[in-house]
Request: fold
Amino acid sequence: MVKFLKELFLGIDLGTATTKIYLKGKGFLKEVPTVIAFNKRNNEIIAIGYEAQKMLGRSPANIEVVKPLTHGVVTNFDEALYFLNFLLEELKKDYLPILGTKFLIGIPLDLTEVQKRGVVDVGLGAGANKVYLIEEPIAFALGANLDIEEAKGLLVVDIGGGTTDIALISLGGIVLGRSIRIGGETFNQNIIDYLKEKYEVVIGEGQAERAKISIGTIIEKNPNTFLIKGRDIYSGLPKEINFTSQDLKESITDSLLEIANHLRDIINLAPPDLLGDISSLGIFLGGGGSLIEGIGQFLEKEIKVKVNLVEESKFSVIRGLGKIIEDFNHYQKLLLNI
Reply:
C-alpha cells in the first residue's frame, strides 16, 4: 500500500560501483549496482542495477551495458538520468510525495564546477525539485561518528569503487584534501593485469571482483584461495589457476603504495597545530575498498600512523548523508553552493 509523505528527501551515495539510498524518516533503503543495460537497436532500457550487472561481459553485440559514472564522475549523462529516474519511480511505488522530491548527493573531492553542475542537472532531470551536494569526506566523517565541528584535525580516507578521497577535516571544513583515481574497480583491473602477466591467463572484471571478495585478505597468516577460470593467452583454451591471498597482495600493492604516498603528502602539508591531532587520533579508514583485510595494517606500516577502521565502513557516507537529512537545519552550512 502506498504511503503518502509530505516530501521525499533522499540521501544518494551515487557511486561508481554501487548507489545507496537513504530516505528521511525511514532510514537506509537499498544498495543497487550503478549499471544500466539497453538495446542498441531500439535504444530501449532492458535492465538496471543487479539485472544489468549480471550482463557485464556476457551481453550480445546488440546489448550495451554501461556504468554511468567513471571514477566518481558522471560520464554518461543520459544513462545516469535514466538510472536515478528508475530508482525514484521504484520508490514512488511505496512512498508518494505531496510536495515533491529533494536529493542530497555525495560527490568526490576535486570535481570541477561543470562536473558538479552535471550531477545537479542529472538529479533535476530525474525528477527532483531541489538537489544539494556535499563532499563525500564530510559525509563519511559524520557517518563515522566523528565530531567534525571541533577544532581538531581528523584525517579520513574513503576507498570507494572508483576513487579514494583523502581529507583533513577541522571546524566543519576540509583543510586539505584530494581525490585519487584508485578504488575497488582499480583493484579489479590490478588483478586482471597481474593474472595476465604472471599466469598468462585472461579473465573479465566480474571474475576479478569475485576473486577479490572471496579472498578478502592480504594477510599471509590468513591464506585463502579462489579458483580462477580463464583463457590461456597463447592457446586460447580454458585455463584454471589457484589465486591466493599472496597473489591478491602482490596484485594491488602498487595501488596501495600510491594511496600511501598521497596520504604522506597530506600529512606533510598539514598545519603544525593539526599534525599533533593526526599523531594522537590516527587515520580513519573506510569505504568498500577498505574491506580487504590487511589494508589498514599495510597503510599503517607505510605511514607510521595508527589506522582506525570505521565500523560498517562501506556505509559511512550514506549514514552521514542520513544525519544531514534528519537534522538539515543544523548541517545545511556544510553543503556546497552550486
